Amino acid sequence: MIQQLGLIGCGLMGGSLALALKRAGLVQRVVGFSPSERTRQTAVELGVVDAAVTSAAQAAQGSDVIVIAVPVAATQPSFEAIRDVITPHTLVMDVGSTKQDVILAAQVLGERLPCFVPAHPIAGKEVAGVVHAEASLYAGKKVILTPTEATNPALCEKAQAIWQAVGSQVSTMSAARHDAVFAAVSHLPHVIAFAAVNALAAQPQADALLNMAGPGFRDFSRIAASDPAVWRDILLANRDEVLAQAKFFQAQMALLQTAIEQGDAQALSQLIESARQTRGPWRMNQQQD
Amino acid sequence: MIQQLGLIGCGLMGGSLALALKRAGLVQRVVGFSPSERTRQTAVELGVVDAAVTSAAQAAQGSDVIVIAVPVAATQPSFEAIRDVITPHTLVMDVGSTKQDVILAAQVLGERLPCFVPAHPIAGKEVAGVVHAEASLYAGKKVILTPTEATNPALCEKAQAIWQAVGSQVSTMSAARHDAVFAAVSHLPHVIAFAAVNALAAQPQADALLNMAGPGFRDFSRIAASDPAVWRDILLANRDEVLAQAKFFQAQMALLQTAIEQGDAQALSQLIESARQTRGPWRMNQQQD
């Protein structure tokens, strides 16, 4: 049971975790900080937080679990703001999509660095803000923890228990491995989807093109509607891995384009068959998504 | 009311149209041809066709509406097989994803060319075969007709009425325009999805990568599980337009990659914001998909 959850950032991700913990009866009180007065009001009105405060330090004060769920640029200031308030037994988590950068930012915690358990829940929506928070956001979803050598193992176990309690499947890996994996399966796919949508938008009669797009395009391009500030930060934080993955992708695009150009039906069939053999069975293993 | 529907090819697309017309009470009898005995048996067992025959000519004989729903390679032989059986009042349609190539193939109809109304229903699944046919496949979906100067206008109107009767939204455009539009919104996105999935599969620990992929990747890559023979034919039939669209896409990829490489946060934000402004509102206009 969490006595007090300190929520630093009352958006979709943090708000959904607060609602999930409340629904599970696992938290007595949620204190939330947002720099926006309107967000604070909405968070209280929606029952996401029990009290809204006007600084990160106030949200951290007296909290046994703190979740930092803010834009990347606000992460290091958040660590600085809570550093002198937390105890050695306080669990501090984030919910960011890149992990090496947040571990670097967390160094400002100094002797409280062991409190920090880097966390990445693989969940989200193409809409932001506390009004879209929902208790079921993390149910059945994966959560990756990337503890470092400095991390307190007892707090890492506590983090794991919390995410499992809201229905998530928890696994751990190194931050470097995490960032490489998610460059491949998430960050580069976003870049590709942005480019594909921009390629349509840049053409004359873009509206007429989009008007003819069907369900395939709808699903393929869904992630292109993601939040620009969030994705700018992710792509810059994980630049090297994203660019390395782009090279793998471009090599495969070149094979397909060459087969099409040369009218090489056999090579083209094999390339498409390879994609189907990879993607077809994967779909069936992931029905919890 | 259709007296007899001749189905040449009893797969997902043709089978679904037969079921939809039956459910709407718009067809008295469906006669289906498949070269596969097993498919013929299944089509009869599932009630997709009332009778299964062993040649395209038999399916066409006595039918007032004929739907050719076969792999591209079998299209021209199908036209040849029915040419001497149909009357000037017979409506012949296809359901293919490219239109200029099928119009070329239809030239073998000779003096029956006016019977042919090229049709492309924007619907499908990543599974093939008559067992996946369903009456609702075309409900709420777009259907594009691309009549030529040779097409009998009365039969074009009849085609339109049939698709509207199964719940589709019908529009017409030139075959050239159609092929350019669908290169942009469908064919190139498939190529991109094939390449993205193959790029993962080509890496060491591909399974570990895929195991971490979430809902964003699931939707983005869904079309990569499409049928290889179908997509090989589409991409080769529409080669020039697909390669032209690939150039637009690569130009946008280059802008994004450069912004990431150079750490240009402002340029990156603008590129992502552009994608969101295009894709975000589109989604809401397409809820019927």
Give the SSE layout:
The structure is a homodimer of 289-residue chains.
Chain A: E1 2-8, H1 12-23, E2 27-33, H2 37-45, E3 51-53, H3 56-60, E4 65-68, H4 75-82, E5 91-94, H5 100-105, E6 116-117, E7 119-121, E8 142-145, H6 153-165, E9 169-172, H7 175-201, H8 206-212, H9 215-221, H10 228-237, H11 239-261, H12 265-285
Parallel strand pairs in A: 1-2, 1-4, 2-3, 4-5, 5-6, 8-9
Antiparallel strand pairs in A: 7-8
* Global morphology of chain A: elongated
Number of strand elements of chain A: 9
**Widest sheet, order of strands of chain A:** 3-2-1-4-5-6
Can you identify the CATH class of the largest domain in chain A?
Alpha Beta
User: What is the CATH homologous superfamily assignment of the largest domain in chain A?
Assistant: NAD(P)-binding Rossmann-like Domain
Number of domains of chain A: 2
- Terminal CA distance of chain A reads 28 Å
Strand-residue proportion of chain A: 5-15%
CATH-derived architecture of the largest domain in chain A:
3-Layer(aba) Sandwich
Task: List the keywords.
homodimer, 289 residues, alpha/beta, Rossmann fold, 6-phosphogluconate dehydrogenase C-terminal fold, 2 domains, 6-stranded parallel beta sheet, 3-stranded mixed beta sheet, 12 helices, 9 strands, elongated
